[in-house]
């Protein structure tokens, strides 16, 4: 399907504030960026680079005053996300080298704390895709999904204690659980068509059966309409924005996703 | 300045033909992509990746029939390219590691064949920027610039024999000469505002005084208005398109660059 | 100085167990590997790769029984680690791109939780090297260094709560504090000549004044004799070994460092 | 099998001369470095880095006088190189991204000049491994292998004209021919047990059937005993040494390979 994404953010800046944004979608295996626009308040000059995961990052200094950002893109994306029940677990010795990093614990995914719990949840499921599906089902039924945005991420252990979270939190706990049984897992942030309420979104991918597959613990079923903007080990790597100096929170964050094809 | 670039290409395809295109400008140190569109004949699906130099590459299969491509972008670029007469030669032992690859000979830049000739040309010039300028001046006055496109690249040695060439050829010989005196040099392809006649363009960068500087042997002076699309060791790395299977040549290649700001 | 390092580990393995080891020192800016040997129990076949930070990693399956590993190297390393009191803070916009990742929070360095505390500790110190030194001095005087090995890493927040830790823990809290004031910091694991008691060691580097400098909160002064084996964001990235499946702990870990030159 | 490799080189240096050496074998998929030593004339300090292909490179300044280098390693390598007659051609659209660069022409492999010739040579052979084997057979029977070392590499076109060459030259023409039919191919330099006369060696790998396979046009059959030291697009990338400034040739180059296991 063909989607138009729009994201607008504004901040009230007191002192010149360095930012790293990650809001430029890249064309990749599952999506093609046919059109995009990316603008800041006049006079701000951004420099873009590629991070260690291949994400495009925009570095800039926001000057005092209201700082606004708007990005929009027309993107062709998969009508249906690939699924592969039965896809087997990949032995550690057979994982491609770049995938290994997604087995390690990370800021918000304390994988090594979930060994026992995950073992019980996946018991009886075939190693691989079906285990990941069991984890997603468990998260969906045990961690209450509270849509919306929280500006202070919490870690998988904290998500488990609180029993609820935003999309990012549900992704974090699922990722931590996958890694705890030696299945590589990584976070994706971006857009989802028909997300309710509309906002930026986070989901995750797990490496089974020789490739990455997408999973989304916040949705009852996995449909199409996903647009990836960043991927990495967890929200520390793929924050929509990372800001340095005295904390600044968005005055406004507005997201739209429209379908362009009939 | 703010420029609008447009490139259109069409090919007459007989059998399904794999292509790699390099026509997506990236935002970087010297330019910001504020808007872009990139479209192919309907039904063609491209997958994008980043090459070893950081360029965005579009891989696709062109189906039989007329295959058309159109890309346009609005880009803020430098009004004036940085110059640094007197910037010193950087000792080999002080070059950053990623720069070292640009000292080696490459497909179209047989650097090791230009040692003696370059030594004579740069004699009396201060090691570094001034040597590169002397090389550019020599190329400008000894290799006749014939604007236009040639589909079969020739190497620096061949350019020297023929005494003439397109922009790519002049860049190749200048790069080979820089490397022959241990100055890292790399090719850039993209757009130049006010190029006559308008077309895609090629120039080069040399690493002196601790950073890359741009040079263009085809122009009498170095003004602004450059938009980089790809960079690499030479035209083998940064071909606008690389095509596999039976050779296919463009039916049409059309380029426009407009100035958007007053 | 010229050092001979020896590390021996043995494990009692019940089921075939995949391991990632990081025990091959690389020659780099500050050290040269003149000789090395690396051996496993007979019949074990390791495959080596380079991770995203440039570390050499050895991947293998340890078979049931006693699994032994021995590595030794003769390494020329700096007599004195570089110091640079007064080296300035580098503005976010001026940091080299590969350095930016070391500003982000990571598994054991919850940088964003140390903003206020670090602000008080570095108050009155010049931004840059002197702030890092103030952090190191604070850690040295407030976190009790308990030499030895703990197999379960704790995070900087936990280290602060406990008020004590092994070398890895002291590095983690110092790294978290540096990042909280926007100074890039990364973990280094390796060997230190004359460490008491002798063991593998961990320290950290901070990026100020345009390059990385070493700091070690466990030692009263920064002398020479350091041999780096791995570097990364924290102990999750540079674990001496990462093991998959049912937990296995070393039966024995033995380290020696001898001086070879007079 | 377990091999001991020894390489010694010496140069007579007139002025301080920067060198890049590539003489440190890395452990990888097909070999394990169990022991190594690497030494230069006393007082020379080398800094090592990893190039864009993953090779370890040693950068140094050789001072005036006799400069000597010695490196030795004990390496476990495959008894038999993998072969796969019938392994299929991989479609361009299915090649892994890092493999694409090995389709492009390079300094000594002018792939685009061999289209027609290669087409005739591989006619009637199944696309993939069998085509590469046909190319190797053609090179073996049409290009006379003259063992030894030549210090000035020639390109595949020149090798074809001369009808003879050293191991590097035979690899170059085979690589150029593979790429001309869209099979990725890359150069490997290293050691070969029982090579006659003993010297450093060069061979190549082609990507068919989903992985890299080794081929050696200089040997009547493909046996085991290969130790890879560097790999890249051609000899420009994987020179044993690259030297800057006035040309310096080795006074002496001595290589030994011994078998350590019975």
Provide a brief overview of the structure:
The structure is a homotetramer of 262-residue chains. Chain A has four helices and 14 strands. By secondary structure, chain A is an alpha+beta fold.
Question: What does it look like?
Answer:
The structure is a homotetramer of 262-residue chains. A four-stranded antiparallel beta sheet of chain A has the order 3-6-1-14, with no helix packed on it. Chain A has a four-stranded antiparallel beta sheet with strand order 4-5-2-13, with no helix packed on it. In chain A, helix 2 packs across helix 4 (167-180) and helix 3 crosses helix 4 (167-180). In chain A, 16% of the residues lie in helices and 37% in strands. The longest helix of chain A is centred in the middle third of the chain and has 14 residues, at 129-142. With 262 residues, chain A is of the alpha+beta class. Chain A has helices spanning 115-122, 129-142, 156-162, 167-180; strands spanning 2-13, 17-21, 31-40, 47-50, 56-62, 65-77, 144-145, 164-165, 185-192, 201-208, 211-215, 226-232, 241-243, 250-259. The interface between A and C is medium-sized, with 34 and 34 residues.
